[in-house]
Amino acid sequence: MATRFANPFPRFFTDNAALLSGGKLYFYVDDGGTTPKNSYSDNALSVANTNPVILSSSGVIPDIFLDGTYRIVLQNGDGVQIDSAENVNSGSSAFVSWADWDSGVDYASGPATIVTGSNGKYYKSIDTPNQGNDPISSPAFWSRVYLIGDTDPVQGGTLDSNDQIIKKSFLLDYGETVNIIGSTGGGTQSIDLTLGNVVSLTVDTSTNTFTFDSPSPTAIACGITLWITNGGSQTINWPASVDWPGVLAPTLTTSGLDKLVFETIDNGTIWTGDLINLDYS
Fold first, then answer.
1. What's the pLDDT at 218?
2. What sign has the CA pseudo-torsion 26, 30, 34, 38?
């Protein structure tokens, strides 16, 4: 009888796809209560694990062997519950279910409900009730689950790394979100980096006062590429934190497109401002 391969090197993640460093797995008697029940570090069930079992800094669990059925609770390092499951045993897939998707099953939502699509990839239910919705073609009901070592990671939506570092990566065919402000209408105009680091706007009506909002924390470089049309048609008050080469801000084009770049490494205490070029046509 064939059996599906189960990942022998599981890692736990937060809802924001960050490694669950120092997470906690509590094992209880499977009666809905909080009576602790031992799990074990060996197949002979002779050496009990600590309860809770503590995940490593990389979100990895040590060896865990079960004796009967359990109720299991997963918490983060601060003791906040992330998930729970009942009727979990050594042959159970209740806590992380990778069974083939079944059109006749009404799936609950949450990280405990993971199925395998007909394409061999894994999906997590994100809505309930969820019956008859093929994971491959129903992104409103299912979110793709990626495993360490996945060789075909096609992202189906926004990946929020929650201000965590992504390292040793190569980028190919990438783009940047543009914050298209359009006409400023005069007055105060916020340039909010949470909406995009590339910004397009047109100066008009009256004096414009720009603010640069939501920069990265200190020691994390952050930049704004500003495409500004008719920048010289009205007075512009730049943030006082902007330092220009030669002290003075550049004189912009009255009717035309200019491009400027601003950068900070100290959470916006100082922004360096540079004119890239004037009057693109």
1. 94
2. negative
Tokens of 243: 């330092």
Which residue reads 């004096």 in tokens? 207
Q: Tell me the pairing of strands 208-213 and 187-192.
A: parallel
> What is the spatial distance between Cα 148 and Cα 189, in angstroms, rounded to a whole number?
43
Longest dimension (CA), the chain: 81
Structure tokens at 112: 């405990």
Question: What is residue 104's predicted lDDT score, i.e. its pLDDT?
Answer: 84
Q: According to the model, what pLDDT value does residue 86 have?
A: 80
Q: What is the pTM of this model?
A: 0.53
Q: Which residues contact 204 (CB under 8 A, 6 or more apart)?
A: 183, 184, 185, 186, 230, 233, 234
Reported confidence tier of residue 149, pLDDT bands at 50, 70, 90: low
Which strand ranges, in their side-by-side order, compose the sheet holding 236-237? 187-192, 208-213, 236-237
Q: What is the pLDDT of residue 110?
A: 66
CA distances from 5 to 9, 32, 108, 152 (A): 12, 30, 24, 17
Q: How far is Cα 70 from Cα 85, in angstroms, rounded to an integer?
A: 8
Q: What is the DSSP letter of 253?
A: P
Burial of 72 (0-12, 13-18, 19+ CB in 10 A): buried
Distance between CA 202 and CA 183 in Å, rounded? 5
Contact 66, 39 (CB under 8 A): yes
